[in-house]
Amino acid sequence: MSSITVGTSLSVVALSRSNARRPKKPHGKKLPQDSSPQFKPKAPSSSNDKLSSSSSMAVEATTYTRLPLKDDFLASSLVEPYREIKLSDSAVPDFVERSNELGGGEFDELSIEDELEGFDYGEYEVEDDEHEEEDYGSFEEGSDYEEGAEIVGFGNKEEGLEGGEEKEKGVPALMRCFDRAKVYVKAGDGGNGVVAFRREKFVPFGGPSGGDGGRGGNVYVEVDESMNSLLPFRNRVHFRAGRGGHGQGRKQHGAKGEDVVVKVAPGTVIREAREDAIEGEVLLELLHPGQRALLLPGGRGGRGNAAFKSGLTKVPKIAEKGEPGPEMWLELELKLVADVGIVGAPNAGKSTLLSVISAAQPNIANYPFTTLLPNLGVVSFDYDSTMVVADLPGLLEGAHQGFGLGHEFLRHTERCSVLVHVVDGSSQQPQYEFDAIRLELELFNPELADKPYLVAYNKMDLPEASERWPAFKEHLLAMGIQPHCMSAISKQGTKEVVCAAYELVQRIKEANKELEGGAAAFNLNHVADRITQKRNVPINEFQIIHDISSKTWHVDGEGLERFVQMTNWRYVDSERRFQHVLEACGVNKGLIERGVKEGDTVIVAGLELVWYDSPDTSGSSGARKRSTDSIRWPDWK
Ligand SMILES: Nc1nc2c(ncn2[C@@H]2O[C@H](COP(=O)(O)OP(=O)(O)OP(=O)(O)O)[C@@H](O)[C@H]2O)c(=O)[nH]1
Ligand SMILES: [Mg+2]
């Protein structure tokens, strides 16, 4: 008999966030030769489609290279044409002023919630007052009781966002868009079962009475209608469900761990966070208020010794540990849920359009990037027919790679069923501006280019815009697109645009209804189901891998892993049961068949053992006897 080394390995997964997007396709473009502003005074009257100019605009023979830049940021951009324009670079004087008035970034001062969820287990005892129990050594497992819902604030450390995330430093909190977050979730561990025996007056040798541990708390994700950003995750990153209570004497089972509910805004996409640059698998898309998904089921409670009583084992001195609760890092991403998304170059008049078709009052000003965060407005035709319209920040060339504000907001367009593309008629080359925006959308996500869209040529009240309209219209008609023209400021033509958008939205809704009708309702609990399925893998499903160089045998299987995790080595019968299970599920046989030799290391689901051939050949079967006695244990503490 000799000793064995045991090593339990816990791998801590450090996850980082990826900013990587698709690589930019080479455009091979140059800057426009003449991008100087040529704004003319505003024409006194409104205009429309019929107001086509007599002299159609002579399109300059320049190779269009990027979206027309406005004089506001031309100077700086021309020097470094591909410089990334950050929120902090854009001119937003009134906004900054307002945020200062409000107290200089009020969100920064949000305090961390103090509430702690989960259980305080305190001291755990098997004994009770009335019943004397056998002493099987110390049952305290202090380290097991630390768990409870943990709240970690984003301080300087910002634990949840480590790993290459570029932060918008220097930008007041009011301007940041909290539509991405990274959180840690952990289901509660199951409580431990205990070994206890019934001892009463006149019943000196009562049977085993150790109760089972309670089930760990579950992690749920729920859509909270009142949330419109992922801002709360700035203060709280870790969500841990409570662990199950431990079993007690007199067959008392432990209490169930407290569940934890992660509340997210409607439209949140939940991905599994990954270490590498690749985006993790989409686990859930929670769109509608009230949707609730069981994400991680709590660990099973360990069985107490009462559960191990059998005809052969009348005095079982064995109990299981609770099953560990699953854990993972999640990436949350909020995408606006709107029927119509207004896209276009900066200063095209997107916010103006939203302001005239809905009650929304977005910031409107004659400089690019007036809109820093998406604005939502509800357009109502009558009581029944309404649609939600989102006005998005302006797009620049390279938006798909993060230029301007595009990167942050382009993904919001993914959720809109229809896009209204506003083109600034007063720009130098409206048709090229249009093409460039289309290209950006396509580069960001080819599915965006396939979305139904309308083109609204804006600022028709300006003479230069109405002059360029015929050429623009011709350009688009050649592409098979029927453009609309309007003057958002004077509301001319806006009704036609909105009605056309509404019609498109309705058509898409009808089509989707038909599709949904055929498809089965989506199972929101599929992540938890997958985990449960994994837990139910039988113990005899394992694989043996032999590493010849290090004379190590790896025996891996989901069932075995769970069994090793739940074996509580402090109880004397655990070793015997472990040996028995290895024998019964065929691990020993498999190892012997493959030629395991004395002294070889055997790692069973992370537990390191040394193989010994038993010299004792007595027993019904030599092979079985040998293997049963062949794995030795060190002195377990
Ligand atoms: N003449 C004229 N000016 C317009 C019209 N629509 C918008 N504008 C002006 O164009 C400027 C920009 O308008 P916004 O609505 O802020 O443009 P935007 O597309 O939302 O701009 P960003 O949010 O910066 O991307 C403002 O000065 C508006 O008054 C229009 O139909 N005619
Ligand atoms: Mg705007």
UniProtKB/TrEMBL annotation:
Biased composition (Basic and acidic residues): 626-637
Region named Disordered: 15-59, 616-637
Basic residues: compositionally biased ranges: 19-30
Residue span, OCT domain: 534-613
Domain of life of the organism encoding this protein: Eukaryota
Pfam families in the cross-refs: DUF1967, GTP1_OBG, MMR_HSR1
Any one GO BP annotation for this protein: ribosome biogenesis
Chain ranges of the Obg domain: 175-337
Molecular-function annotations in GO: GTP binding; GTPase activity; magnesium ion binding
Keywords for this protein: GTP-binding, Magnesium, Metal-binding, Nucleotide-binding
UniProt record similarity statement: Belongs to the TRAFAC class OBG-HflX-like GTPase superfamily. OBG GTPase family.
Cross-referenced NCBIfam families: Obg_CgtA (TIGR02729), Obg_CgtA_exten (TIGR03595), PRK12296.1 (NF008954), PRK12297.1 (NF008955), PRK12299.1 (NF008956)
Protein name stated in the entry: Uncharacterized protein
